[in-house]
Amino acid sequence: MGASVVAQHASRIHAAIESDAAAKSALVASWRRSSALHKLDPAERRAPLRVTDHELNHARQRVERLLRASQASLDRLYLAVGGIGCCVLLADRDGVPIERRGAAADDETFEHWGLWTGTVWSEESEGTNGIGTCLVEGRALTIHRDQHFYSKNTLLSCTTAPIYDHEGNLAAALDVSSCRADLTESFIHLIAMALGDAVRRIEAENFRLAYPDARIVMAPTPDQAPGAFLAVDRDDLVVGATRSACIAFGLTPEVLARPLPAADLLGGDTSFSEDLRQAERMVLERALIRSNGNVTAAARALGMSRATLHRKLGRFGLRGAN
What separation in angstroms does the CA of 268 have from each of 224, 236, 271, 319? Predict the structure, then answer.
């Protein structure tokens, strides 16, 4: 990239920062953070920072369950976007890619650009960019070519979405990046749709892995929010909720820390409550059949006290042999 192009980009960044555009533009607000808060210079041409192999392994271990939950979705997403010269990056909450998908023929190019595991893409390190700015703002976005803060990154186009964990905390960012000059707005829109689908799949699978002994049910929400799931235990108590479900029902960590009957939470949704009721009845009936009607043995198999099981059997009009 020529010195004049670098200077022009830097001048445009500085002019926008010094104007009142930051109050109206999320992009300019990010440029201002890059300059004023992180003390970065858009014309700087240093190589991307990288963590050590030990640090990368530690980062992967911190999100081991999320990594397991993401594998199939990363493969699926790459199949959708790899053919148009894109790579897929899963970055942790610090902006460090810990998993990647890409074509072997493009590896040298993408590694040169820092689109590689272990490279630091936080906004603090690289200024405005897809991964770092997504993590700061907690929303899906595209940083396309000269929207990047650093001049050295203006050949990249990065579409990124946040991933929230089973407790609703920002845990990672999923990114599709390309350095193709002919990446059109229509392609970017298709990438964003595929990316959103992958994020929902990863969050759902991670939620299931977090509550392996619970029933995972889709919560009916007024706006039909995708990814609104509840984890319900054997006593029909809500033990977990995805971020979408928490937002829809106004749930906080403090609320979820107390026993919360699923039927009470869902209120007037009689169809859902009846589904839960029928599901519980079936579980009780199966336990009784397997124990030949022995309530003590059935209670032990269900992980509840004999008295609790008797109450539940009475509620459904079921009887055991003792």
Answer: 16, 16, 9, 30
What's the count of helices (H) and strands (E) in the chain, helices before strands?
14, 8
Q: What is the CATH number of the domain that holds 299?
A: 1.10.10.60
Same domain, 195 and 243: no
Give the pLDDT band (50/70/90) at residue 196.
very high
Domains: count for the chain: 2
Sequence-distant contacts of 59-65: CB under 8 A, at least 24 apart: 59/92, 59/94, 59/96, 59/98, 60/98, 60/99, 62/92, 63/92, 63/98, 63/171, 63/172, 65/206, 65/209, 65/210
Structural domain boundaries enclosing 223: 215-316
Instruction: Tell me phi and psi for residue 215, to 5 degrees.
Output: -85, 135
In a domain, 23, yes or no: yes
**Structure confidence by residue, pLDDT tens digits, 75-131:** 999 999 998 889 999 999 999 999 999 999 999 999 999 999 999 999 999 999 999
Q: What is the pLDDT of residues 249-303, one digit of tens each?
A: 888 888 888 878 887 777 655 455 565 667 677 778 888 888 888 888 888 888 8
pLDDT at 306: 86
**Helix 64-81 / helix 185-210 crossing angle, nearest 10 deg:** 150
The encoded tokens of residue 165 equal 């964990």
- The reply to whether 321 falls in a domain is no
